[in-house]
Amino acid sequence: MDTFTALADPTRRSIIEMLAAEDRNAGDIAGAFTVSRPAISRHLRVLREAGLVSAREHGQQRIYTLEPSPLAEVAGWVNRYSAFWEERLDRLSVAVSARAREGNEQ
Amino acid sequence: MDTFTALADPTRRSIIEMLAAEDRNAGDIAGAFTVSRPAISRHLRVLREAGLVSAREHGQQRIYTLEPSPLAEVAGWVNRYSAFWEERLDRLSVAVSARAREGNEQ
DNA sequence: ACGTTACGTAACGTCAAGGTTACATATCTG
DNA sequence: CAGATATGTAACCTTGACGTTACGTAACGT
Predict the structure, then answer these.
(1) Looking at residue A28, what is its pLDDT?
(2) Residue of A51, A71, A95, B33 with fewest CB within 10 Å of its CB?
């Protein structure tokens, strides 16, 4: 599953936020949500397969750690097009008058 | 639909990339993909409802424009946690030896 | 060794996302 | 006005995402 898709689910984003604070085992993570533990287990699998988290075994527990490098890729994409925003803002006054002049482009 | 969900679909991300280059009408956008025009029309609706694009009418055409402010919100979220990455990188040498001691991830 | 704890997986149900074809509507053009 | 063009919507189908309950398995504690 693609990183964007992994981030589409709010529960998974919450898990990421939790793990940003500190590493946690699966049970702790599940305990923070109302949905069932198997459901969280699945979410963790999705996050693992997307490379967004990794798990290490510690006795019978699995401790999850945030792996932010896929996040960095997403940040790259998003920043490219929200940076475009700044650019647009800079050009805003120009664009407005240009459009008024042209009628419409395309 | 939430912005993250709107971004989860690769076709919609492509549309955003196209519109970052320049405004386009619906037909042009649809022409760039292999899926049917109604499918693209739906994607455009999703993007509109997420506030990621806006449309203005120009005769019988609808010209779509990228509206990057929701992207900026996403950028805010993502950057918050990929910024955490930098922090981790700073701590990398420490972390590596720590993990080597503890065992292994995943 | 045995029950308990921590986790994952299997099997299954439901619902919504995304695709298609067919159709409705509005605007151009001759 | 009549036909062509541009676009959205309706109806429908299929598939996959997400949830639940039931079960399997490995490590702990007594």
Answers:
(1) 97
(2) A95
